[in-house]
Specification:
The complex is a heterodimer of chains A (340) and B (346). By secondary structure, chain A is α/β, with parallel strands linked by helices. Chain A has two domains: 236 residues, Rossmann fold; 61 residues, Alpha-Beta Plaits (2-Layer Sandwich). Chain A contains twelve helices and 14 strands. The N terminus and C terminus of chain A are likely disordered. With 346 residues, chain B is mostly helical. Classes of the chains: A alpha/beta (340), B mainly alpha (346).
Chain lengths: 340, 346
């Protein structure tokens, strides 16, 4: 086991994110892509290990450019990168044979039947027509379109189109699936099904998924790790659980003298956020619990409940953006493209 | 397996147990056989809480096969487009396109039918009009109205219309470029697909015409040696015509997002330039402007290589240069636009 170097803007946060080098599906060193004076990707050192990883970032963060570079479609300005152990500068064709890419936008011929669309996508990878047809049946069954496979794509709902795109990506049983906004435009049921399918592909199929999404909830549900890009730079990467440690808080429900207790805690150098009787205190160490209880005694408050607060990815995102110097009300605002 | 059960099992509201360990009593047997109970209870409908009728088990099935090399992928693109004319499951060409191609093939076989008729009834005048000779070989590819000036351009327009523009509109370019398909493979296979379809119509019927004459009239080696170079020249002209129409048409398709503009654009270029050159020729007796008409430039070159009577007064090499420049510009535009097709967003 080799510990990966601390990367990104959060290298000062002493996150201990370890990677098994042999399990890395994507790795890049000082990966840079510039379009004239505009630097789309700025010296990215990324290590993505096997499993499910979320790719996050506001519009213009470099997600699309990053996806194009790992697909071997554009030439790097400098640096290097490997996908599934293959050099992205020289092995583009081989990489694309082993990757299943599910585009964000429509990528299906509306006048074709789903089965033939998926079969053709397999043939484009070099599968024999009869084998591609057989696999098309299997993958459409897998994505829940077994009964609908002879219908024209134009008659499909958005969820069914997304599922067909996923089937196209899965037909050759790729080692890595890149899903660009897989739950885009889906209703609750279709979204659940899509996320379950991706989870099943990772857990039962033992495949890796790189999922670009602006829905934190979806990423949190499917992925163990995230890579967060911002203005072409790596803002954070690692296991979601590990990253959440940077925003660890203790939630305290008090009865009586809440303001006084908040004041005492603040005076004693603790970071406190309060909403009525509920306050959240930044976890600074194991002694924080005692400090909170002592402050409650001194203030004359009753502590009704006290527990660690599990931060959501949304909270984490906001903390990261705050530390980058941006005020944001929510990830939605940032990821929808309002440049902070 | 899916985390959610596709539908919930319907509970047995009678309370009777039908599992393996249940004692088989008379009442249970009756219920199993006839769905009968004592008849005293109020009958209630059992409504499933989820849709019934299918059992969905989501199981990821791996695939251990090997992928074929580049030529097989290119062959898949070619087959997809060409076979779409004949069968389902490939590129969905519109019914009007298929019908028009069928009509043009029939129309292109009229000289075959007349040669056949001349041979069967032994009519020499008819044969001299429609049998294989230098002028008629040229005429099959370039000369007879409306087949060559109207039908072939319309077929080309119908074929090129959505060839690349629809990939741009539907985002299907991502399907190609996220796979190991290079932009050159993509453009060249699409190009070749259209050329092959036009080739089947123009050169296919030319070959049928030539070989029908040999069979029907019982031609010997001397005639073959005489006419075969002319046939080859006409064959080359057919290829040149298909190539040029395709390159202009595909370049128009690559700059568009719909099928109408490229189709009408191709027809406008072919008909418009010809009409303008014809007007100038009629007014000033100068044929030089025909070099801007793709059809006339090819026709002029073909007259020169087949050796039939020249109908243009300017040197044929100018027309040859024009054909080369037209194709060069069209292919440059095509290459440029295909390279701009996006994978992640269009």
């Amino acid at each position: 086991m080799k510990a990966a170097p601390e990367r990104g803007i959060f290298k000062g946060l002493s996150l201990s994110v370890n990677f098994m080098v042999e399990d890395l599906v994507i790795e890049s060193t000082a990966l840079t892509k510039a379009y004239g004076p505009h630097v789309a990707l700025d010296s990215l050192d990324i290590s993505i290990s096997k499993g499910a990883t979320g790719l996050l970032g506001p519009n213009g963060a470099g997600k699309s450019t990053f996806l194009k570079t790992i697909l071997g479609l554009i030439q790097l300005t400098s640096g290097e990168g490997k996908v599934l152990g293959m050099d992205i500068r020289t092995k583009g064709d081989e990489i694309r044979q082993k990757i299943g890419y599910m585009p964000e936008y429509d990528a299906l011929n509306p006048n074709m039947e789903a089965i033939h669309q998926v079969r053709y996508s397999g043939e484009l990878l070099g599968m024999n027509p009869s084998i591609a047809l057989s696999r098309a049946h299997q993958t459409l069954e897998y994505v829940g379109l077994g009964e609908q496979r002879y219908r024209q794509v134009s008659t499909f709902s958005t969820g069914m189109k997304q599922a067909t795109k996923l089937a196209c990506a899965l037909i050759h049983d790729p080692q890595l699936i890149i899903a660009d906004e897989p739950s885009n435009g889906l209703d609750l049921q279709a979204r659940n099904f899509m996320l379950n399918t991706l989870q099943t592909t990772v857990n039962s199929g033992n495949r890796s998924v790189l999922m670009a999404s602006h829905l934190m909830e979806d990423v949190e549900r499917v992925c163990d790790e995230i890579v967060l890009l911002h203005k072409g730079k790596l803002a954070a990467q690692g296991k979601i659980q590990d990253l959440k440690a940077i925003d660890r808080e203790i939630e305290v429900h008090v009865w009586g003298a809440a303001s006084k207790m908040e004041e005492l805690l603040t005076d004693r150098g603790m970071k406190v956020r309060r909403e009525g009787r509920v306050m959240r205190v930044r976890h600074e160490g194991e002694g924080t619990y005692n400090d909170v209880l002592r402050a409650a005694v001194d203030a004359g408050s009753q502590v009704r409940r006290m527990h660690d607060h599990e931060a959501s990815l949304e909270d984490l995102f906001l903390v990261i953006m705050e530390r980058l110097g941006h005020e944001a009300k929510g990830s939605e605002e940032l990821l929808r493209g309002i440049d902070p | 397996m899916s985390n959610e059960a596709p539908f919930e099992p319907v509970e047995d509201k009678t309370g009777a147990a039908f599992d393996a360990d249940a004692p088989v009593t008379g009442k249970a047997q009756m219920q199993a056989a006839w769905s009968a109970d004592d008849g005293e209870r109020e009958s209630t409908a059992q409504v499933a809480s989820m849709p019934q009728g299918q059992i969905f088990q989501q199981i990821y099935q791996p695939w251990e096969g090997t992928l074929n090399p580049k030529w097989m992928r290119n062959w898949a693109i070619l087959r997809h487009h060409v076979l779409g004319i004949f069968s389902k499951g490939h590129r969905p060409w519109g019914v009007p396109t298929k019908l028009f191609i069928f009509f043009v093939i029939l129309a292109s076989l009229t000289d075959v039918a007349l040669t056949l008729l001349a041979g069967l009834i032994g009519e020499t005048t008819l044969y001299s009009m429609f049998g294989v000779n230098r002028d008629n070989l040229y005429g099959h590819v370039m000369g007879f109205w409306p087949r060559n000036i109207l039908y072939y351009p319309v077929v080309a327009a119908l074929l090129v219309g959505g060839m690349i523009s629809e990939d741009r509109a539907h985002g299907t370019s991502a399907l190609y470029f996220s796979r190991p398909i290079t932009r050159f493979d993509y453009a060249s296979m699409k190009f070749l697909s259209i050329v092959i379809i036009l080739f089947m119509i123009i050169n296919g019927t030319l070959a049928v015409y030539y070989f029908t004459d040999i069979l029907i009239m019982g031609k010997g080696w001397a005639w073959l040696i005489d006419t075969f170079p002319m046939f080859l020249a006409a064959f080359f002209c057919g290829i040149l015509l298909s190539f040029t129409y395709t390159s202009i048409g595909l370049s128009l398709s690559s700059v568009s997002r719909g099928r109408f503009f490229p189709a009408i654009g191709l027809l406008a270029i072919l008909m418009g330039t010809k009409t303008m050159a014809a007007i100038i020729d009629g007014l000033f007796d100068k044929s030089i402007l025909y070099v801007i008409s793709p059809y006339d430039a090819i026709a002029h070159v073909c007259q020169a290589i087949i050796g039939t009577e020249m109908t243009y007064s300017h040197p044929w090499t100018w027309s040859l240069a024009s054909v080369v420049i037209m194709n060069g510009l069209a292919l440059y535009l095509l290459a440029n636009r295909v390279s701009s097709l996006e994978v992640t967003r269009e």
